[in-house]
Design goal:
171 residues; five-stranded mixed sheet; elongated
């Protein structure tokens, strides 16, 4: 209604299709993580319209009882439960390592699954959103090895097919 014309939502179905469609600039409005928004702004001249939520940071944690791991570099070559790349949490932590000494990424579908696997011993460590960690009921069982710098949270961007007037109506 605000734009004066029909807007439709299209779900890509899979992450691979979504990323392929992004690379082909098929979406006029996109709401996702800051690193994808920044990429669209640079590559397709998307305009940021709305930023929702707080800034985000990511924390690498191990189980409190794990005395062998005290530094981030101690997890090199060991199992790190993480959401699969291009998840920003995973990319952020792997950038902290020498490429020849990366942790072995065990993919998880959620932060909760990653934390549960650390508690049960399936992974040595995990990287998760710092806000999620603060809300985790077993957070006292974890010790932090690393916390990333904060970055902007989720952002809605508009492509060039929307004119300035339409973009301003959405804001």
């Amino acid at each position: 209604d605000a734009l004066g014309e029909r807007v439709s939502y299209q779900h890509a179905g899979t992450a691979a299709k979504y990323h392929a469609d992004l690379r082909q600039d098929k979406y006029d409005l996109v709401f996702d993580d800051a690193h994808f928004s920044a990429w669209r702004m640079k590559r397709f001249n998307h305009t940021p319209l709305i930023r929702l939520g707080d800034d985000v940071s990511y924390t690498v944690v191990v189980h409190q009882k794990n005395a062998r791991i005290s530094r981030l570099t101690d997890i090199a070559g060991r199992r790190l439960c993480a959401t699969p790349p291009p998840a920003l949490a995973t990319l952020t932590v792997t950038r902290q390592f020498n490429p020849s000494r990366l942790p072995y990424i065990m993919t998880s579908q959620s932060y909760q699954e990653s934390l549960d696997r650390v508690v049960k011993g399936g992974c040595v460590a995990t990287v998760i959103d710092s806000v999620f960690l603060a809300k985790y009921d077993k957070s006292t069982e974890m010790k932090a090895l690393f916390r990333s710098k904060s970055i902007p949270g989720m952002t809605l961007t508009a492509g060039q097919r929307l004119n300035v007037e339409q973009r301003n109506k959405i804001r």
